[in-house]
Design a protein that fits this description.
With 247 residues, this protein is an alpha+beta fold. The chain folds into two domains: 9-100, Pseudouridine synthase I, catalytic domain, N-terminal subdomain (Alpha-Beta Plaits), CATH 3.30.70.580; 112-246, Pseudouridine synthase I, catalytic domain, C-terminal subdomain (Alpha-Beta Plaits, 2-Layer Sandwich). It contains five helices and ten strands. It has helices at residues 34-45, 82-89, 140-147, 198-210, 216-225, and strands at 9-17, 53-55, 64-74, 94-100, 112-120, 132-133, 152-155, 170-180, 184-191, 240-246. Strands 1, 2, 3, 4, 5, 6, 7, 8, 9 and 10 form a ten-stranded mixed beta sheet that branches. Strand 8 (170-180) and strand 9 (184-191) form a beta hairpin. Helix 3 crosses helix 4 (198-210). The longest helix has 13 residues, at 198-210. It is elongated. The termini are far apart. 32% of the residues are buried. The mean pLDDT is 94.
Length: 247
């Protein structure tokens, strides 16, 4: 009996994507997803033999990625021109920046992840799909006072979607703060992991603090109650970006 030894190369790649038209990162039946687009393109480049990829995390429908990483096994020692061919096949909303031969697990080897959320102070015709427009003045100092209560290893059940299939809702947050420019409010948060809908729920609730509708004490009480019904409505998905991943 003859055996054929299949030689594969572990590859690691950096991508960016505009999530406007997609139902998030992860493959879902009969829905367009970022993972689905990339796997479909790689499969075609592999002679219609399936290629599975691993992403550095899940993103919700409509959420974007400034920096995102994937890992996969390429069934050959050669991957010359794969970057060029893959970018030609993928839609304009997805770009592969580089591909390297590295044995890194995109999800489990990631140490820290950073999200940024953008709010425009007034409407902008060229940025609307990437910003939440809020024609209100926010008290950034008070919002940052509230954000200090998010630092550490805490239970974020109050800011997680109820149907999340996670074993626990603890996250180790190392940074959480708001900054302001002439035209934009920006929220940045870094943690070892994030729960489904967590960042958007935090944005929506801290905005209530910034508008004076919620005190810092009430915000911290919401966190301690571990009940999603206590927090405010989530901010729109279009303003959220997975911004940085550290390995």
């Amino acid at each position: 009996m003859n055996f054929v030894l299949m030689v594969t190369t572990p590859l690691f790649a950096k991508i960016s994507f505009d999530g406007t038209a997609y139902y998030g990162w992860q493959i879902q039946p009969e829905k367009e997803t970022v993972q689905g687009e990339i796997e479909s393109a790689l499969t075609k480049l592999n002679g219609n033999k399936a290629v599975a990829i691993i992403g550095c995390g899940r993103t919700d429908a409509g959420v974007h990625a400034h920096e995102y990483f994937i890992s996969f096994e390429w069934p050959s020692l050669r991957f010359d021109h794969l970057l060029f061919k893959l970018n030609r096949m993928l839609p304009h909303a997805i770009k592969v920046h580089w591909i390297e031969p590295k044995s890194i697990h995109a999800r489990f080897d990631a140490k820290r992840r950073t999200y940024r959320y953008f709010i425009n102070k007034e409407k902008h015709p060229f940025e609307d799909q990437f910003r939440w427009t809020l024609n209100r003045t926010l008290d950034i100092a008070t919002m940052n006072e509230a954000c200090q209560g998010l630092i550490g290893t805490l239970d974020f059940a109050s800011f997680a979607k109820g149907d999340s299939d996670v074993k626990n809702t603890l996250c180790d947050v190392s940074a959480a703060f708001w900054t302001e420019t002439d035209s934009t409010y920006i929220f940045e948060i870094e943690a070892n992991r994030f729960l489904r809908n967590m960042v958007r729920a935090l944005v929506g609730t801290t905005v209530e603090v910034g508008l004076g509708n919620l005190s810092v004490e009430s915000f911290l009480a919401i966190l301690s109650k571990k009940d999603r019904q206590e927090a405010s409505t989530s901010a729109p998905a279009k303003g959220l970006f997975l911004w940085r991943v550290v390995y």
